[in-house]
Amino acid sequence: MKPLLVLLAGAALAAGPSAHAWAQPGASGDAGTAVPARADTLPAPPPPEVALRASRPAASGVRAVILTVADGEQAEPAKRSAFLNCAPVGGSHPSAQKACAWLNRTGPDPSALRVNATQPCTMIYAPVTVTASGIWDGKYFQFRRTFGNDCEMRSAAGVLFDF
Fold it and tell me: How far apart, in whole angstroms, are the C-alpha atoms of residue 138 and residue 62?
């Protein structure tokens, strides 16, 4: 019984001070007015939309990423960087729509960055290090990958790091 009371009290607190207005509507005989709840009763739980809003984390739909490209095997200093917002699409990335489509397909998974063997690249070693960090569906992520050269990076990531 005690856990149920705690749950109900938590729902009432999440609903805010107007939770008492739902307690006993029409108790005075008028169906349109609400009277305050009696002291010996618990407040009624909030409407479902209020309870749902209180239980869902605010960052659950966030899809924002900071992308960097650096020459060499170190991620610092970054040669260039871009901000990418995928919910809604925007940011400083020049091809935000295509980059978000790529991320929506693969998610923020560094193993998805596979070099496309059908695209020919020179065997010149001029390393390029890319990083991506941000929030994807409410979870923080971060990854870093070094490619043999710029061509390998474009082959693996397409437009994602093309800024």
Answer: 6
For residues 152 and 121, the answer to whether their CB atoms sit within 8 Å is yes
How far apart are alpha carbons 125 and 146 in whole angstroms?
11
Ranges of H-type helices in the chain: 2-15, 48-55, 96-106, 150-157
pLDDT in tens, the chain (163 residues): 343 333 334 434 444 444 344 444 444 444 555 555 555 666 666 666 654 554 455 557 889 999 999 999 998 899 999 999 998 999 999 999 999 988 888 888 767 777 777 778 888 999 999 999 999 888 999 999 999 999 999 888 888 998 8
Q: Which pTM value belongs to this model?
A: 0.61
